[in-house]
Structures are given as C-alpha cells and as structure tokens.
Write a structure and sequence with these properties.
The chain is mainly beta. It has a single domain, classed as YaeB-like (Elongation Factor Tu (Ef-tu), domain 3). 6% of the residues lie in helices and 31% in strands. The chain contains two helices and ten strands. The chain has a six-stranded antiparallel β-barrel with strand order 3-4-9-8-5-10. β8 and β9 form a beta hairpin. The radius of gyration is 17 Å and the shape is globular. It starts with a strand and ends in a 10-residue tail after the last helix.
Amino acid sequence: MVRLKRAAAMEPARHTDMTFEFKQIGTIRSPFCDLVDMPVQPKGAKDIHATIEINEEYAAGLKDLDGFSHVYLIYYFHKVKEPKLSVVPFNDRTHTPRGVFSTRTPMHPNSIGLSVVELVGVEGNIVTIKGVDILDGTPLLDIKPYIENFDRVEGETRSGWMTATPHEVGKCRSDERFVQV
C-alpha cells in the first residue's frame, strides 16, 4: 500500500494535512532493470513489450479492456526517495533547471507516473502492453482506457520550454541524474 501525504503548504487556507492511501493493483514487468539508459518517454520505447501482472483480487476489473487500443497506466515511482522542486529534464536542450511541475521527471512530490501505452492483449490477470518506458517491478496503481473522443486535444496546443523534436524525444535515454541511492 502506498501512502501519500499532502503537504500543509499546498492546502488552501484550511492548512489541514491529508493522507491518501492507494493499493497496488499489480506489478509492471518490463525489460528495464536499471534506471540508467532507459527510454525517458513511451515515444522512445515504441517497440518495447512488457506485461502487467494484475493482483488476482482485481482481475475481474480487466473485463472488456481488450477492446481498447491504448491505456493510461498510473503507477508509483518506487525508487524515488527524495522529491525535488527544481530539475534539469532529459529533453531540455538548454540544460536549464525547471520547476518540477513543468516536467515529467519522476521527482514530483507524490512520485506518481503516467504513461499512455498500446494495449496488445489481456489474458487472465496478465495485460500485455507495448511502448513501455517503465522500470521492471514498478507498482501499478490504476489502468484507464484511452478514449479518443474524450482525450484527444483539439486546436492549438503548447509545450512550454520543451522544444525537442519527436525524433529527439525518441532517441533520449536516461542517465544518473535522477538515480538515488
């Protein structure tokens, strides 16, 4: 079970401390056993297959999932020991420290990850996925289907400081900057 504590400084005027509990519903099994030299986004892992072992008590929740082409994975960055509010992201060509909330680094205060991956299949309690940039053994918190009519953004979009091309994003690999011992 993952317990997330909401910092009092983040609370509106009430200044209450809230604790949230999340249950691990499964484990992501990927070929990445080391935090260094991994793809840093699913775009760089488009041909990488992995599986998710859903805990038996949640397996019934997989019914009808196989009708979707893609899913969102919400997971816990279990290797993050100390979050940071300023980081130099992998895809920042200028190597400028950025506020953590303008990045996709794992160093966020609540260490929650989000990836959109291709759904290959569901068999029993095993979900096979493709396009995975996630460390082996990562605890899965939830799966949600990608639904184009809900999730596709229409009109003009902006990517802030991020100017890397799709090709550059696909080639980017992790280094030691976020590895904590």
